[in-house]
Amino acid sequence: MIEIISGIILLLGAFFILISAIGVIRMPDIFTRMSSTTKASTLGVGLTLIGTAVFWQDIGISARVIIIITFLFLTAPVAAHIIGRAAYNNNVPLWDKTKVDELKGRYDEKTHELK
Amino acid sequence: MSFLEIAVNISIIMIGISLILIFIRLAIGPTIEDRIVALDLLAANAIGFVAVYAIQNKTTTFLDVGIIVALLAFLGTVAFAYYLERRKIK
User: Fold this and answer.
1) ipTM of this model?
2) Given A101, B18, B22, B85, which is the most exposed site by the fewest CB atoms within 10 A?
3) Which of B10, B15, B67 to mutate to test the interface with A (most CBs of A within 10 A)?
4) Which residues of chain A lie closer than 8 angstroms to B28, CB-CB?
């Protein structure tokens, strides 16, 4: 029974990882690509690690899994924010069908404030 | 062959395919930011691969590798983004 639950969770995690990889290949510009990366990858890796913890049912393994998941969930939004900021400030082109760009012309580069 | 072994094999195949796709994006990425995003995702996939591989080989030592990879990937991403912004100021 434990093996079946662990296998199902593993398959779900691997499925999310595959979806995020397909999104990285197929999406049109860097910001849509980053949405696919950060959401699906943390969810996929988290599910895979939870499957590992369910398989062993050991306190040491569970502690390591919780450490990795906490660290991933803390750092993935920060890393995505920093890359997105660097990309926007370096004038990486947006997708040509982008409707709304609220930051355009409102960011003061000297004082780093919003107008 | 039990259900778990089949699931582990299918998971390894899926993660392998996604590694190949991310390598393609790493090679063709039009800007340097695309390559950084691909590197970040590559490290996350490595952690997932380590977890599945630990179940397949019935050894628990590989999970420590996952902690180190998570730390190094975050540091690398932040350093790359920081120097990209500095390059723009100059």
Assistant:
1) 0.88
2) A101
3) B15
4) none
